[in-house]
Amino acid sequence: MKEPIRREIAFAGPLRVREAEDGKRSRTIEGYALLFGVRSRMLCDWYDAYYEVLEPGCVTRETLDACDIKMTMFHNREKILARSNMGVGTLSYEIDDKGVLFRFEAPNSPLGDEALEAVSRGDLAGCSFIYSTSEDTSKGCVSYERSGEKDQWGNDILLRRVHRIETVYDFTLAADPAYTETSVTRREVEEAGVSLPGVPPSVQPDDAWRRQVCEMRAERDRVVKL
């Protein structure tokens, strides 16, 4: 049985500080943590190149309300700006046709002031989030198809469509979201025993990880051959 894998996907804006009713700057920061139907930058997972698209309806209010979601800066759990734990807390969100819109009041703290200033200046221009879902295509959570493009070595670039997200772990403010490297994926590649160029594997893989890598490769190879 394939276990869910944590993934990170990033989006460029819009991220802004709302204006107060009197025209002054408020402490409310809002933006989209995830966007539907937007193709990601090319990602690399298990040495396979692919694009990722979050399909409309892939996440529900019920799913979000069942999660403990931290609003952070740069995915740093020591820099928490807001939080929604089982749908209750200082982080609010809503789902519309565009994606998941979040909103929170920056805390009256040096970190909150830092976030307000960085967003106002445009230094923090977008968001990303970490989520997990089942890689078992028979469950209907994800599907793969050929994008019609090839990488620099002539290999097919796949399109990974996410139909259902099972868990969301955090939303974060990001500096260059459209170009963010998927560091979560990189760590998991290493844990699976695959050595990325110039990066020695830090953890010896166990049998479960080996099986999962083989299963994911077999599924992608099947799609490419269709």
Order of helices and strands: EEEEEHEEEEEHEEEEHH
What is the beta-strand fraction?
Answer: 35-45%
Radius of gyration: 19 Å
What gross morphology would you assign?
A: globular
Helical/strand content category: alpha+beta
What is the helix tally? 4
Query: Low-confidence parts lasting 5 or more residues at pLDDT below 50?
Result: 178-205
The neighbouring-strand order within the major sheet is 1-11-14-6-7-8
- Count of distinct structural domains: 1
> Portion of residues in helices?
10-25%
First and last CA, distance: 24 Å
Extended strand count: 14
**Major sheet:** 6 strands, mixed
Mean pLDDT: 78
Summed up, what is this model?
The protein has 226 residues and is an alpha+beta fold. The chain has helices at residues 61-65, 110-121, 183-191, 207-225, and strands spanning 5-12, 15-19, 25-35, 43-45, 48-54, 68-73, 76-85, 88-89, 91-95, 99-105, 126-133, 142-150, 156-162, 167-174. It has a six-stranded mixed beta sheet. A four-stranded antiparallel beta sheet has the order 2-3-10-9, with helices on one face. A four-stranded mixed beta sheet has the order 4-5-13-12.
3D architecture notes:
The chain has 226 residues and is an alpha+beta fold. It has one domain (5-181). It is built from 4 helices and 14 strands. A 6-stranded mixed β-sheet has the order 1-11-14-6-7-8. A 4-stranded antiparallel β-sheet has the order 2-3-10-9, with helices on one face. The chain has a 4-stranded mixed β-sheet with strand order 4-5-13-12. Strand 7 and strand 8 (88-89) form a beta hairpin. The radius of gyration is 19 Å and the shape is globular. It starts with a strand and ends with a helix.
